[in-house]
Here is the input.
Amino acid sequence: MHRTGELYGHFETLEQQKESAALGMWIFLVTEVLFFGGLFLTYTINRHAFSTAFGIGSNTLDITLGAGNTVVLIMSSLTMAMAVWSAQVGKKRLVSIFLIATLALGTVFLGVKAVEYKQKFDHHLVPGRSFDMKYHPAHPMPGDDLKELALEKEEVDKAFAQDPDINAHGQLYFSLYFGMTGLHALHMIIGAGLLLWLIKGSFAGRFTPQYNTPVEIVGLYWHFVDIVWIFLFPLLYLIDRHR
Amino acid sequence: MLGTGITVWAAFQDFGKYNIVIALAIATIKATLVVLYFMHARYSPKRTQLVIVCSVFWLAIMLALTLSDYNTRPREGRLASADTCYHA
Here is the structure.
């Protein structure tokens, strides 16, 4: 039966069964590459076409939060890899600990993302009727650095001079920003659900050196989501930062 | 981790038009390390490695062909060359 890792009828060896599970996940990840790849392509083309708007849009993102999130996610990949290793060497308690650590780090990532989204909403940078790139420089909010804000206002004004349609093109940038990071966050939420399922299993002592396929496979998925973010971060946050 | 530090630092340097190339190169190296080591791709059967290479190859084709399409379009946003007649 599935759950105990016994040999299924159509496999010749346990090794083959394990390998085919992993291969199945890899093939699914290939389809995910197709999925995100299309969005990255769209981003590239639009960025090339509207570089002014994209530059300004990128500068409104908080690079500290972004870089911090990147570190958090890479660490969660590390704890995930440690969880797989623990299962392989039979240290069952460590498996639970590392899985919980991965889930915690993933949740931190999502929390920071929520904070960033709220910020965008407050600054009128969500595509739609109230989108206005001039709003934030004109309306300082508590916690803003006024000097930075003045610099930003200068940049926005310069950009408007170069490209009068910035409010329209800026919406392209933010649509892609919310679309890509939102899709990524959705994948992380699904990953969190999978981790919860794994944690439940690890408490029941299911994962042994002979049978740790679920941990390995969810690990592959989690690492993939990390890779997507590794590419998202420089593309969205780090355009034109050389002020 | 080191890679992320380098990425952010590099972003604040201006290499002129190579900016995006450097940022993407660093990201690619990071991603390759994750795939090889965290995802155990280095220790997988050849079949799996082939699947991974195929996905990268597919991405390369999509990016190369689409971008070259856009690149070779006439400027001013027209979809064809200046002497194309739309209403025949």
Remarks:
- The domain at 15-46+63-132+174-237 of chain A is CATH 1.20.120.80 (Four Helix Bundle (Hemerythrin (Met), subunit A)).
- The interface with chain B takes residues 19, 22-23, 26-27, 29-30, 33-34, 37-38, 41, 44-45, 48, 63, 67, 70-71, 74-75, 77-78, 80-81, 219-220, 223-224, 226-227, 230-231, 233-235, 237-242 of chain A (CB under 8 Å).
